[in-house]
Write a structure and sequence with these properties.
397 residues, alpha+beta, Outer membrane efflux proteins (OEP), four-stranded antiparallel β-sheet, 9% strand
Length: 397
């Protein structure tokens, strides 16, 4: 897929590693086959090719056959008769065929650019859905870790309540923290299912497990004229320009060259005579009709050029915003991830709870500190009570 970083700017998503690029490509190709532009792409391409083939013909329209006859059988009946057969050939106007070819070629290029732009828009939508699913997966893993630590803390508090070192209210508080962690995990699991359904709705296939790692941002995000969204508008303007040139050429209907032969007889008993005729029909110009076509093509050209300028400014703003916001956004996410990981350390780690921790957490941690001091004395064997997780700081603080 060309211009992957432009997909990134449109979707504001991290580009994938090659290991999972195949997964995204699989999702995208499945989504493209289900899209409406792909449904009629082959037929539209064949129609444009047929129009280009018609521009290479010798005549702008098919020839026509002319048949005619005269006879006096219904009035005088003297044997007079006349039979005429001819072929009428429409002719190209000066410069019309070349401009018709140019218009057909530009329309084919516009169609190809429109397909590329549609693929780009769909790729941005697929990438946005894909990375939303990946972010929810990370949140689910963090919520699961918090739930596990809250469960371990609740078990530890229950043991100490049973031993009589903590009050029953502390056990209720620990159970409440566990219930909150489980509710958070259930909510994030529902969001994960919704994100997976969004991908399945786009592509018809369920997302598979994949790494959430990404590639570094390239140094240059320069906007090129070959960008599919700009190329689509440029091709549209080119088609409108060629249509304007063709409309200026077609000031009148196509002339016709007629080649005919006539066989006639004056009366009974006289020999028939045969003649050959050549005729040229030149229609007059139709100024109002031609003026309407010229104005319509000119309006289409002006709109396409204006839209191209607006789209270029929009894409430049999107790329600039993506480049300026990417580093702070990525650093902020890494910082939040580090904070989650530090809070989700298993019991017994060296992290100390803050002063804002709950009384239960402070009492349990102080008890562990006292046990460590008593362990240094020979007369006081240490008791093995695991230290609660610092997650209580975030849950109860």
């Amino acid at each position: 897929m060309p211009y992957p970083m432009l997909f990134l700017a449109l979707a504001l998503a991290l580009p994938p590693f090659p290991a999972q690029a195949q997964v995204i490509a699989e999702v995208f190709e499945s989504a493209w086959r289900r899209s409406s532009p792909a449904a009629g792409a082959i037929q539209r391409g064949d129609a444009l090719q047929a129009r280009r083939d018609a521009a290479d013909l010798y005549t702008p329209a098919p020839p026509s056959l002319e048949l005619g006859g005269r006879s006096d059988r219904l009035n005088r009946d003297r044997g007079a008769s006349e039979l005429e057969v001819g072929v009428a050939l429409p002719l190209w106007l000066p410069g019309e065929q070349d401009r018709t070819r140019a218009l057909a070629d530009s329309e084919r290029g516009e169609f190809d650019a429109r397909i590329a732009a549609a693929r780009l828009r769909l790729a941005a939508e697929v990438r946005e859905a894909w990375w939303a699913w990946q972010l929810v997966r990370i949140d689910q893993a963090s919520a699961g870790s918090r739930r596990d630590n809250a469960s371990a803390l609740a078990r530890d508090v229950d043991r100490r309540v049973a031993a009589g070192s903590l009050a029953r209210a502390d056990a209720h508080q620990a159970q409440g923290a566990l219930a909150a962690a489980e509710a958070e995990l259930e909510e994030i699991s529902a969001l994960l299912a919704s994100a997976a359904h969004r991908i399945a709705g786009l592509s018809g296939i369920a997302p598979r497990e994949a790494s959430a790692a990404g590639e570094p941002l390239p140094e240059s995000l320069a906007l090129s004229d070959a960008h599919p969204l700009l190329a689509e508008l440029a091709r549209r303007a080119e088609s409108a320009r060629n249509a304007l040139d063709l409309a200026a050429t077609q000031k009148r209907a196509n002339p016709e060259l007629t080649l005919s032969t006539r066989r006639e007889r004056g009366s009974y008993g006289t020999p028939g005579e045969q003649t050959i005729a050549i005729a040229l029909r030149l229609p007059f110009s139709s100024e109002p009709r031609n003026r309407a076509r010229i104005l319509d093509s000119n309006a289409t050209l002006i709109e396409a050029e204006a839209q191209q300028r607006v789209e270029r400014r929009r894409l430049e703003a999107v790329l600039s915003a993506a480049r300026d916001a990417w580093t702070p956004r990525y650093a902020s996410r890494r910082a939040r991830s580090d904070v989650r990981n530090s809070r989700a350390k298993p019991a017994g780690s060296s992290t100390s709870p803050s002063a804002s921790a709950s009384p239960t957490c402070r009492r349990v941690c102080a008890s562990k500190s006292n046990r460590a001091k008593r362990a240094a004395r020979p007369r006081a064997p240490p008791c093995s009570v695991p230290r609660p997780s610092p997650i209580c700081v975030s849950l109860w603080g």
